[in-house]
Amino acid sequence: MNEKNQVLLKFKSILDKHGYDISPDQYDQLKVKDKPHRRTIRNHIGKWQIAKNKAQQVDETQTGQYTEDYRDSSGVLESKSTRIKSLDDALKYFKVDTKLWEVDRYTINKWEVGAKNSEKEIEVIPLYQVKVWLKRIEGNKAEAIRSLIDELTAKSPTYPTLKTKTFTGKRYMYEIAIADLHFAMYAWKEETGLDYDTEIAEDIYLRAIDELLSLVQNFPIEKIALPTGNDFFHSDNSEDTTTKGTRLDVDSRWQRSFTRGHKLMIKAIDRLSVVAPVVVPMVSGNHDKERLFYLGSVLEAYYTNNDRVEIQNSPKLRKYLTYGNSLIGYTHGSNEKIDSLPLLMASEMKQEWADTDYQEWHIGHTHKKKETKYIVGDTFNGVGVRVLPSLTSADAWHYSKGYVKGRRAAEAYLWEHEQGYSAHFSTNVRGDWNNGE
Questions:
Q1: Is the pLDDT of residue 20 over 80?
Q2: Is 188 exposed, middle or buried (0-12, 13-18, 19+ CB in 10 A)?
Q3: Which of 141, 284, 321, 353 is the most buried (most CB within 10 A)?
Q4: How much is the pLDDT for 349?
Q5: Are 408 and 428 contacting, i.e. CB atoms less than 8 angstroms apart?
């Protein structure tokens, strides 16, 4: 007989002795009337409550507590148990339909509790709390993306075969690094000093591509890198918010901005692939984590039949590109500490790190140009960290906070196959561009 039942029987006998005819579920509300017996009964009430709480804790430890609450567009799942320890465990236990629901965020906590084992001995066991916030997948969005990918794969154009140039002597990769375009952001000149919308973003992006490309006509370019993302889109969903839910000013419906965005990328990649084979690392940002992955999937489908275009669209947050004697890392810069990036590269790309003499990180997020160099141990070369500039103007929120940029620009970097970084080129938004006044 466990402690709870022993206390229960003792307590019941005391109550019967003093004329209390009540059931156990009423014990917590018991009010002692007879003064001579008040102290005795109150003492047993306390023992009963302690025993009951201990038993409840053991029961919860062994069987677990599980709650789920679904609304129209969101849901919250929570478990406290010894067996559900991860997000996947929770999704499986609650039988979440991943075709209808996606994870918005989750937390996992762990602590230790004491419980009796089969030998009635107290042992310390781990208890896990897993809490998951879900959001409903927008049916139209998911269906539209899947339909578009299927259509593009089936209708992927056949590009003419172009002879890949071979070079003797020096040869280069040209990296055109246009970060933080914030496609479909809306800014009104009367409020922020400059207009910005989908049409303006498209115009200045293609102008930047053309001008940066024109600057290296006389170089032997054997490869072009076009890292894409770092908040390519301004918003992430039909609610016009960032990935974490911050409300934004946008100039069009999500369907229109996504369609215009993927067509813009096709225009740019087509122009570049005539010059040299193109690799496109997709670098997600804090504004467009989901939409950028969809964009990468669409581009993969579209270029299925083009062996001169490679889309790097893995779910990994950080992307890497090796060219000759150089290793370049890409991340948005909103999650990692900048001074941790060199060691992350050395850890995540051990072989490539060992095989190259030159390493750099290229990040966005701050919308301004900056360059830092870190020394990673005595035996390693310096690792450059470049914060890329942006073509984007300020929206209403940034303007109200005084975050007004003086220079809107895009940059490109020339990498020699053996000697690494050789030069960089820059182009600024000017008065003869769409809204560069």
A1: no
A2: middle
A3: 284
A4: 94
A5: yes
Please state, as a whole number, how many other Cβ atoms lie within 10 Å of the Cβ of residue 207.
19
Of the chain, the end-to-end C-alpha distance in Å amounts to 85
> What are the φ/ψ torsions at residue 215 (nearest 5 degrees)?
-75, -10
Boundaries of every domain in the chain: 3-59, 65-136, 140-428
Q: Which of 87, 86, 255, 266 is nearest to 159 (CA)?
A: 266
117 three-class SS: coil
**307 is written with which tokens?**
């062996």
What does the pLDDT look like over 41-69, one tens digit per residue?
A: 556 565 655 555 555 544 444 567 889 88
Query: Parallel, antiparallel, or unpaired for β 278-283 and 309-312?
Result: parallel
Report residue 55: phi and psi, to 5°: -65, -40
Cβ-Cβ contacts under 8 Å for 12 (sequence gap 6 or more)? 24
CB 385 within 8 Å of CB 365:
no
Which residues have a Cβ under 8 Å from the Cβ of 63 and sit 6 or more positions away? 81
The verdict on pTM exceeding 0.70 is no
Fill in the DSSP letter of residue 75: E
Contact 176, 221 (CB under 8 A): no
Which tokens belong to 218?
């006389």
Supply 149's token pair.
């990918």
CATH of 140-428, one of 3.60.21.10, 1.20.1250.20, 3.30.390.60, 1.10.630.10: 3.60.21.10
Report the distance separating Cα 39 and Cα 8, nearest Å.
17
10 phi and psi, to 5 degrees?
-65, -45
CATH classification of 65-136, choosing from 3.30.110, 1.25.40, 2.60.40, 3.30.70? 3.30.110
CA 19, distance to chain mean position in Å, is 65
As a whole number of angstroms, the distance between CA 326 and CA 174 comes to 13
SS3 35: helix
Token pair for residue 106? Answer: 């989750």
